[in-house]
Amino acid sequence: MSPTAPTRRPTDAAFVDEDEFDPPTDLLNLPWIDVHNHAQTLSWTDRERYALSGCEAMIMVASGYHWTPYKPVEADDVRFLWDDAVNRRAAIERNHFFEAKLGLGIHTGVRIEDPDELLDAMDDYCELDAVAAIGETGVTPSQHVSSWDVDEQRAIVQAQMELADTYELPIILHTPNRSAESKRSYRPEVQTPGYEKNTGLSTEPVIDGDNPALEAVELDVEAMRDAGINDERVVASHADQNNTAYLMEQTDCYLSFTIGHSWLIGVTAADVADAIDEYGPDRIMIDTDCANVLRTDPFALKRAIFELYRYGIDEAAIRKVVLENPRDVFGLGS
Ligand SMILES: [Zn+2]
């Protein structure tokens, strides 16, 4: 027993039982893998933050319409995004030492003219060692600038799932979130501060049921069944309270919770902890989705590791979620 502290009068220290808490020091140096980000669009310094906080590997996704300047979007515009990522990937690894692999896909957040041209080209990209996943893709309830018929979207998603199956690659789904009601809206001309997307250019929804975000995920799952790809190759990114029960109970897909922009979509480490409590850690991952077009936090995954522990998740489950599942599904890491 340590001697009584020589403080003039008792402090908090006199009431703390030191034996009661055993800090999880292994978590300080636990490597982790981010299975969905857009780090090729971040600054060098932001990528360094990944390295500084223990990132072992990442999937840099090139598919997003945020980076194609012209609308309507043509196949070549998306092809440029793929080539830009291919061009820079090796330099990023040499600069920061984590393993950086690519996800290439056709996102349906904006209608793309001649998507078949992209699908044809994608075959050859899938052969590259640098490409570790297809995506992000997935049926989206409303588009930017120009809407895209639901059946056509579903066909593009299914075709990418078929390619993923052929090349034995995982596919990353962009499952739409049901965002929380905001307390107050911003001036229309400033739109959403922290997000550079011009939300004023969103088109009327092409899915207009009670729960379009969930209906979109159900269409993705139908496409998955029709494509014949194994559920275990499908990683539903942007898991949230609206889609977790459906995906966990009706499929064997992996769910990845996006926590790099919680201010926008409302998903935090608490949602991840709840999902682990309910379903166990075997089909859960976490991603940051960090990108230059919105306020995102490269330290988010590292912070979530500590937060999960505080929320009562044991160290083995945390390791499974942030390291082992990504290694297994994407073939990453040492
Ligand atoms: Zn993304």
CATH superfamily: Metal-dependent hydrolases
CATH top-level class:
Alpha Beta
CATH architecture: Alpha-Beta Barrel
Shape: globular
Order of helices and strands: EHEEHEEHEHEHEHEHHEHH
Please provide the count of β strands. 10
Largest beta sheet: what is the strand line-up? 1-2-4-6-7-8-9-10
Mean pLDDT: 95
**Helix-strand makeup class:** alpha/beta
Structural overview:
It comes from Natrinema zhouii. Keywords: Hydrolase. GO terms for molecular function: hydrolase activity, acting on ester bonds. Pfam families: TatD_DNase (PF01026). The strands form two sheets. The chain has an eight-stranded parallel sheet. A two-stranded parallel sheet has the order 3-5. About 45% of the residues are buried. α2 (about 75-95) packs parallel to α3 and α4 (about 150-165) crosses α5. With about 325 residues, it is an alpha/beta fold. The protein has ten helices and ten strands. It has helices spanning about 45-50, 75-95, 115-125, 150-165, 210-225, 245-250, 260-265, 270-280, 300-310, 315-330; strands at about 30-35, 55-60, 75, 100-105, 110-115, 130-135, 170-175, 235, 255-260, 285. Bound molecules: zinc ion (ZN). Zinc ion binds near residues 36, 38, 136 and 289.
